[in-house]
Description:
Layout: H1 15-23, H2 32-45, H3 50-63, H4 69-72, H5 77-84, H6 93-113, H7 116-120, E1 129-130, H8 144-155, H9 163-172, E2 176-177, H10 184-188
Parallel strand pairs: 1-2
Helix pairs in contact: 2-3, 2-6, 2-9, 8-9
Amino acid sequence: MVEFLTRCNWPSDDKLMMKYHDEEWGIPLHDDDKLFEFIILDGFQAGLSWKTILHKRENFRLAFDHFDAKIICNYSEEKVRDLMENSGIIRNKLKIKAAISNAIAFLETQKEFGSFDNYIWQFTNYKTINNELNSLKETPVTSKESDAMSKDLKKRGFKFVGSTICYAFMQAAGMVNDHAMDCFRYKQL
């Protein structure tokens, strides 16, 4: 017997989006390497759909040395040119350059706070904010926490970290639980 699960409607019938929704999105994340990956990918998402980014994520991982900030912070102009020629990723020079400056800022922040996790979770007082949403229409795109995060990240030299991008990051990293209340993941998280 096949069990039918009620989930948020944004993954639609896309298998990769459903897998991401069911296994990653909204799970509290405390791994610095994954947090850095999410910051980079959410920056590349600016102006695009998450579906586009998710379907290119494996290409991004290969192109960006598995999101190793220590490698990315030393990317040369030649590497930037190579990335601009890589059709498997989003070829936006500003976003590529932002990934490099974000790697530098990430490492500095990590050093200052002992971990990026210690730094980033302060914006939600080190716990998940559980929103009680009935539908996708009710989902906020920013919050006072994402506003504060964006402002502080920019002050530290991060790029492509506006409040909307920060809110998407918070959703992905489980800092906010924006699963619809009737979604099977809502109660699990």
